[in-house]
């Protein structure tokens, strides 16, 4: 139910629009995000070991202090190496591995972990790499600008991006 609003008086209110200085690196970062969103995801040919930026599909089981934790297991999970979202132990252990490899990853949790069941525990993740895919970013050129819609050139895309950030 929407409330009924009577007459409003806006006299005495001052509204100021703040001017934000947008740096070139801010525009570059936003254009890089656009490239990431429009990347092609492909299986590398020929097959190769995993590297930073790759997407791995993994299955894993977890044991904590030797006890299996079925509720923590996962199947067909996609993770990005080097994306900053994985535990550092995962990034390090999965780097340079191949499809079909099985990797045991040890993670020791301290007393500051959010999950009380993991405090000061050691977990072993038995990971199987099921698939490796890579992102192919579109070239940073006028074709990218055209593919994104109303732009004819990369300079037009950059100008519009700057305007939107401002």
Structural overview:
The protein has four helices and six strands. The protein is of the alpha+beta class and 166 residues long. Strands 1, 2, 3, 4, 5 and 6 form a six-stranded antiparallel β-sheet that branches. A hairpin with a 2-residue loop joins strand 2 (55-64) and strand 3. The protein is flat, with a radius of gyration of 24 Å.
Question: Would you spell out the secondary-structure blueprint of this structure?
Answer:
Layout: H1 24-37, E1 40-42, E2 55-64, E3 67-68, E4 74-80, H2 88-94, E5 102-108, E6 122-136, H3 142-147, H4 154-165
Antiparallel strand pairs: 1-6, 2-3, 2-4, 2-6, 5-6
Number of strands: 6
Largest sheet: 6 strands, antiparallel
Q: Separation of termini?
A: 36 Å
**SS strand fraction:** 25-35%
Question: What count of helical segments does DSSP give?
Answer: 4
| Overall average pLDDT | 94
Helical content band: 10-25%
Q: What does the radius of gyration come to?
A: 24 Å
The ordered string of helix (H) and strand (E) elements is HEEEEHEEHH
Form type: flat
Alpha-beta content class: alpha+beta
Low-confidence stretches: none
């Amino acid at each position: 139910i929407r409330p009924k609003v009577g007459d409003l008086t806006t006299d005495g209110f001052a509204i100021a629009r703040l001017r934000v200085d947008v740096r070139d690196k801010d525009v570059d970062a936003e254009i890089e995000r656009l490239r990431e969103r429009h990347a092609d995801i492909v299986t590398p040919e020929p097959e190769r070991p995993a590297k930073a930026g790759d997407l791995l599909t993994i299955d894993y089981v977890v044991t904590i202090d030797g006890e299996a934790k079925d509720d923590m297991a996962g199947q067909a999970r996609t993770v990005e190496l080097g994306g900053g979202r994985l535990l550092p132990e995962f990034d390090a252990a999965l780097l340079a591995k191949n499809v079909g490899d099985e990797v045991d990853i040890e993670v020791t949790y301290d007393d500051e972990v959010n999950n009380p069941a993991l405090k000061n525990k050691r977990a072993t993740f038995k990971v199987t790499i099921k698939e490796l895919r890579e992102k192919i970013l579109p070239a940073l050129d006028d074709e990218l600008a055209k593919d994104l819609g109303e732009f004819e050139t990369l300079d037009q895309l950059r100008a519009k991006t700057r305007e939107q950030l401002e």
